[in-house]
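Here's what a typical entry looks like (Acyl carrier protein phosphodiesterase):
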Amino acid sequence: MNFLSHYYFDRSTTSCYFVLGTVLPDLLKNADKNIILHPEKLHHTNSHVNDIIKGWNKHLEVDRYFHSSPFFTHHSHNLKLKLLPAIEGSPVKPFFLGHVALELILDNLLLTTGQIQVDEFYNHLGSCDEKVIAEFLHFGGMANSTIFFNFFDVFKNEGYLHTYADTQKIAYALKRICMRIWKNPFTPAQEAAMDDVIIAYREELLESYLAIFNDIEKQLSHS
């Protein structure tokens, strides 16, 4: 799941550090795909650092349920098939595209149906003391956290996730993600064709998309 979908499960949480932890695995991956941390079983004397660890573990648990769900299998496959004609000639792997497109659509639906407020998410991230984050990263085994904090500052200041509320910009967001792997993933014509597919698929999911969040919440409550 993407940033805002992870936030949905803890939108009422008061700990900014726990919220940060729920999205930190993806933030680190975006900062530098070579960063690999495994703090899952660590315990720190600082409760704020432990909140980040707990949030991190929640992230892993949510992703595990989501990626093994029939919802994910069905809709990522369907999106892949529908997007194939639109990206003919593109170097992007169709499975990757269907996977990421589904996650972006879910973030868009949460925003546009009022399930979450993106400003509240950013407020949580902005409330975290960087010294606590640095201690977590050091405790988790990262020798130099400069790369992460450079990215994190831009991530917070840009407020890019606000654009996810604009359905017609989902294809652009998808292109930005693909550009981390492929230099020129789509032509303008391909991007426009992807827009059409994504907008139509969003409408298909509009009435039923919350079912996957409800299903995951049930599994979380029994774990």
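The mean pLDDT is 95.

More examples are in the samples folder.
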